[in-house]
């Protein structure tokens, strides 16, 4: 089974910020999770380098668009690496291999009769690179996203016959209820379609920076067509000497925010159909990260700097915080104070502490060896039981409910913490030590524990030792199960923990699927407490 996941390709007219990192981190969670499920995964991110937003920004700085692109694209590439994204390729739309492939596809759209010459008259936002319909305008003919007054444009363009695909799109949405998730975004796309689709400009006469139309080199391609096609073109050259298109198209899943919903959920599938290609498998539309009430953006100074957070706390903490704090699919505020609270309570206390305690008790009471025992039915069952959690998390991730998946995992983290308190293994260890002292002359708890591992040893103890085996096995097994599910979200710390638990496999596994016997070791705190 193949799984191809993408982020939007980001405009190189500014610096990367946490908003971009957010989409990249979310896409990486999907990529890593699907790899853990043994699927054939391809993960693409990159930069959008043509068109008016880039041309205007370069002009403002007095440099060429190419210079601006060459300066900023590597920053986006580094951002992906810093958040530990495992992208298989980084596409730049100024890559001639992309441009050649776009020309081929767009020529096919032309040959198939879906393009005509006309005059565009209407509202245009140069920052969105978007021709706005009347319904999309803000008060006083403004751009609702950038809050700037829009110019009325009149120009001769080539048009893409979007209106001809209205029925195809309606059919696609009817046949594939999960084409766009979450549902409220699907409804938004459907309502856009239901209001009647207008044809859209495919080219613009006054651009200097962009692809020329193969059949009319006087006109440059409207940047969105060039940009959207990256998802398809990259497959043809991402691997030297290999064309991955057959392998990964159309099993493509897009991650993006609601600002570019219309392009992805309406224009993109229509464009593909026009070129005789299949629409992607689906897309998830997430909300905005806000600072206070405002969308985080490159023009706002007051942002969480992902680089700084990563330097201090690591990429895992940033990934966790963003996907946990803001319900994936909704808008939500992020703040430095909110980050610190969650870091302290959930990462350092709930999870880090559970992991440290578990490893410490295994070392202390059982010489580091996970005892042989069965899953405790009390821990396995119930609303926050561990049994079947992996199935539940896979279902949630299949619906791109990333925060839901984290919540499902976290309720089990809390459950395991309660289990430790309820069972008080340190009391059991003491009882075990006492009865060992009375019964068979055993020494320190650690040694008694080690003996308990040896086959054939007569079980003369009070039962405290057996109970301790049960508790320690269940803790180790619970933590292992959770760490496997957390690999996708917090790769570095989860890997370290799994290594410490003596787990070599990264395959998602159910609670109780591994027996005892693994050799564990203590490690420094996964998430050290804040000073
Ligand atoms: O639109 N919260 O590029 P772009 C959440 N080049 N996500 C955010 C965000 C925020 N505050 N700010 C940015 C473009 N994003 C086009 C895309 S794709 C074929 C072409 C993320 O640099 C989010 O994914 O403006 C959003 O959709 C994207 O960055 C917009 O990036």
Protein described:
The two termini are 46 Å apart. Helix 2 (52-61) packs across helix 3 and helix 12 (315-325) packs across helix 13 (336-366). The chain has 2 domains: 2-333, Rossmann fold (3-Layer(aba) Sandwich), CATH 3.40.50.620; 336-500, Isoleucyl-tRNA Synthetase, Domain 1, CATH 1.10.730. The chain has 531 residues and is an alpha/beta fold. The chain is built from 20 helices and 16 strands. The strands form 4 sheets. It has a 6-stranded parallel beta sheet, sandwiched between helices. Strands 5-4-6-8 form a 4-stranded antiparallel beta sheet. Strands 9-11-10 form a 3-stranded antiparallel beta sheet. The model is unreliable at 439-461 (pLDDT under 50). Ligand ME8 is lined by residues 8-11, 19-20, 22-23, 48, 227-228, 256-257, 259-260, 288-289, 295-296.
């Amino acid at each position: 089974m193949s799984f191809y996941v993408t982020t939007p390709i980001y405009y190189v007219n500014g610096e990367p910020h946490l908003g971009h990192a957010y989409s990249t981190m979310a896409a990486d969670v999907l990529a890593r999770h699907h790899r853990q499920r043994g699927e054939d995964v391809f993960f693409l991110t990159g930069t959008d380098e043509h068109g008016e937003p880039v041309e205007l920004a370069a002009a403002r700085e007095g440099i060429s668009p190419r210079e601006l692109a060459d300066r900023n694209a590597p920053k986006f590439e580094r951002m992906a690496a810093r958040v530990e994204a495992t992208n298989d390729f980084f596409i730049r739309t100024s890559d001639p291999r992309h441009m050649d492939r776009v020309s081929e596809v767009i020529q096919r759209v032309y040959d198939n009769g879906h393009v005509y010459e006309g005059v565009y008259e209407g509202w245009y936002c140069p920052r969105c690179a978007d021709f706005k319909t009347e319904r999309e305008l803000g008060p006083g003919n403004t751009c609702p996203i950038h809050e700037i007054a829009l110019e009325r444009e009149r120009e001769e363009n080539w048009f893409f016959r979007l209106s001809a695909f209205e029925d195809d799109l309606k059919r696609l949405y009817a046949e594939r209820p999960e084409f766009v998730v979450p549902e409220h975004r699907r409804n938004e796309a459907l309502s856009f379609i239901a209001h009647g689709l207008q044809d859209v400009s495919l080219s613009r006469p006054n651009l200097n920076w962009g692809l020329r139309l193969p059949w009319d080199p006087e006109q440059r391609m409207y940047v969105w067509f060039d940009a959207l096609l990256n998802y398809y073109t990259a497959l043809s050259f991402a691997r030297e000497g290999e064309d991955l298109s057959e392998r990964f198209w159309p099993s493509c899943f897009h991650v993006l925010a609601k600002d570019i919903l219309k392009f992805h959920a309406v224009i993109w599938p229509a464009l593909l159909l026009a070129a005789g290609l299949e629409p992607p498998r689906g897309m998830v539309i997430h909300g905005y990260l806000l600072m206070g009430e405002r969308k985080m953006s490159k023009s706002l100074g007051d942002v969480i700097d992902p680089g700084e957070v990563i330097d201090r706390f690591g990429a895992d903490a940033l990934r966790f915080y963003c996907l946990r704090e803001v319900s994936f699919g909704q808008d939500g505020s992020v703040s430095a104070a909110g980050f610190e609270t969650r870091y302290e309570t959930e990462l350092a206390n709930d999870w880090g502490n559970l992991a440290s305690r578990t490893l410490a008790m295994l070392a202390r009471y059982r010489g580091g060896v996970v005892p042989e025992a069965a899953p405790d039915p009390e821990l396995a069952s119930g609303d926050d039981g561990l049994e079947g959690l992996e199935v539940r998390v896979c279902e949630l991730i299949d619906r791109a409910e990333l925060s839901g998946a984290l919540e499902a995992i976290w309720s089990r983290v809390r459950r395991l913490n309660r289990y430790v308190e309820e069972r008080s293994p340190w009391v059991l260890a003491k009882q075990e030590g006492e009865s060992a002292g009375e019964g068979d002359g055993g020494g320190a708890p650690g040694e008694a524990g080690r003996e308990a591992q040896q086959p054939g040893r007569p079980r003369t103890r009070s039962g405290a030792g057996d109970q301790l085996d049960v508790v320690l096995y269940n803790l180790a097994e619970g933590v292992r199960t959770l760490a496997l599910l957390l690999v996708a979200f917090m790769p570095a710390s989860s890997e370290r923990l799994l290594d410490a638990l003596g787990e070599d496999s990264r395959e998602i596994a159910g609670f109780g699927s591994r027996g005892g016997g693994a050799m564990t070791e203590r490690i420094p705190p996964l998430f050290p407490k804040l000073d």
